[in-house]
Amino acid sequence: MELPKPSDPHRKLEKFAGKWEGEETLRPAGPWKPSGTKARATFDFHEGAGGFFLLAEYDERVEGGKPGIRGHGVIGWDPKEKSYTLHWFDNFGNPPNSPAAESGRATRWRSSTTWARTRDERSSSSTERTR
What we know:
The protein is mainly beta. It has helices at 8-12, 99-103, and strands spanning 18-25, 38-48, 53-62, 66-78, 83-90, 114-117, 129-130. Helix content is 8%, strand content 43%.
């Protein structure tokens, strides 16, 4: 029996592989994160499960270097819904979910962060930006 192979939507996730760093302006999130607070964060994405998923490590440092959100994500493709999924685990302790899969409609991931990929062996350029 031959194992399944990743499809085109799975392969599109490869472009995010690598280490991304960005500066953030946080939206209000209670007294410990007032509106306008600045933070610096790193996403480190790598392939998982033979190319079917992208695994994410996230580390945020709020003004003054204080620890912020730390989390792990699993990004995949749901062929039935024809949408990408995100299962997220973090130090807030919330149970993981996949909003796009649960609601039956795509959910946009909104961020005011501009991410820059740091130089690594997968990239010949020094930075790559996305918003």
